């Protein structure tokens, strides 16, 4: 895989003021309370339909001070995996400390696999009634569509335990770092209280009402939100 063509010549920490190429390409804006504490950085603006380009090995900025390297620093401190209050949901990820809107939470880390391998694993999971964690990133470049499949089942991190909600407190942002293979960064999309369960929307379903009849094997959603769609999103791209 070729290295990403986006890199910067900034000194010390990157920001809009330093005219950082990576931040300009991303259309992002950060704020922070302590330049040396990456967990104090918050994403306050993001251009729609653009991936985030983090500073990478080709950049000249200072690794210890650059706030545009959040995904590379691993999950934020204080995240806890424990059983949910609704036992049917199993385990979930909870905030051990308050998390401000726009803060990086963790990467949805896993193996990058081919579409063929994703389909094989998906069918095996369904056959043996195992949880499916495979996530498809479907990007469009003009008339071309590029799919990237991430499976954290064996090689992953705490991100795989974050449950779905139809009214989530986190969102995913496609991110590129050292090369053109995208990764998924999970960010808080509102202020999260200590002890609150983290969640993101597994996908937008275009099915409603008759979902049960159309897909009898759909998994019932247990998020409990007032705008619950009834079933977990169903991704036909990995069938």
Automatic annotation (TrEMBL):
Residue ranges constituting the Pre-SET domain according to the UniProt record: 6-74
Subcellular location: Chromosome
Any one GO molecular function term: histone methyltransferase activity
Ubl conjugation listed as a keyword: no
Matching PROSITE patterns: POST_SET (PS50868), PRE_SET (PS50867), SET (PS50280)
A GO biological process held by the record: methylation
Protein name: Histone-lysine N-methyltransferase
Gene3D superfamilies tied to this protein: SET domain (2.170.270.10)
Domain Post-SET span(s) in chain numbering: 217-233
Domain SET as annotated: residue spans: 77-203
Species this chain originates from: Dendroctonus ponderosae (Mountain pine beetle)
Keywords annotated in UniProt: Chromosome, Metal-binding, Methyltransferase, S-adenosyl-L-methionine, Transferase, Zinc
Gene Ontology annotations for the cellular component aspect, listed alphabetically: chromosome; nucleus
Source lineage: Eukaryota, Metazoa, Ecdysozoa, Arthropoda, Hexapoda
InterPro entries on file: H3K9_Histone-Lys_N-MTase, Post-SET_dom, Pre-SET_dom, SET_dom, SET_dom_sf
């Amino acid at each position: 895989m070729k290295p990403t063509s986006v890199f910067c010549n900034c000194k010390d920490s990157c920001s809009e003021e330093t005219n950082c190429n990576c931040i300009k390409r991303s259309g992002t804006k950060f704020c922070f309370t302590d330049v040396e504490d990456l967990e104090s950085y918050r994403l306050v603006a993001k251009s729609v339909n653009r991936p985030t380009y983090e500073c990478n090995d080709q950049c000249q900025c200072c690794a210890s001070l650059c706030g545009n390297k959040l995904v590379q620093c691993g999950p934020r401190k204080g995240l806890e995996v424990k059983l949910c209050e609704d036992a049917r949901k199993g385990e979930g990820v909870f905030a051990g400390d308050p998390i401000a809107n726009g803060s990086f939470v963790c990467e949805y880390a896993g193996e990058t696999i081919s579409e063929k391998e994703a389909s094989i694993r998906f069918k095996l999971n369904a056959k043996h009634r195992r949880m499916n964690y495979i996530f498809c990133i479907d990007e469009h470049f003009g008339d071309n569509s590029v799919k990237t499949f991430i499976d954290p089942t064996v090689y992953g991190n705490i991100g795989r335990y974050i449950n779905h909600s139809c009214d989530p407190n986190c969102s995913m942002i496609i991110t590129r770092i050292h090369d053109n293979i995208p990764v998924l960064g999970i960010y808080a999309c509102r202020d999260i209280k200590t002890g609150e369960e983290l969640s993101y929307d597994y996908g937008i379903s275009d099915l409603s009402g008759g979902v049960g009849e159309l897909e009898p094997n759909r998994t019932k959603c247990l998020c409990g939100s007032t705008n619950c769609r009834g079933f977990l999103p169903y991704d036909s791209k990995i069938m």
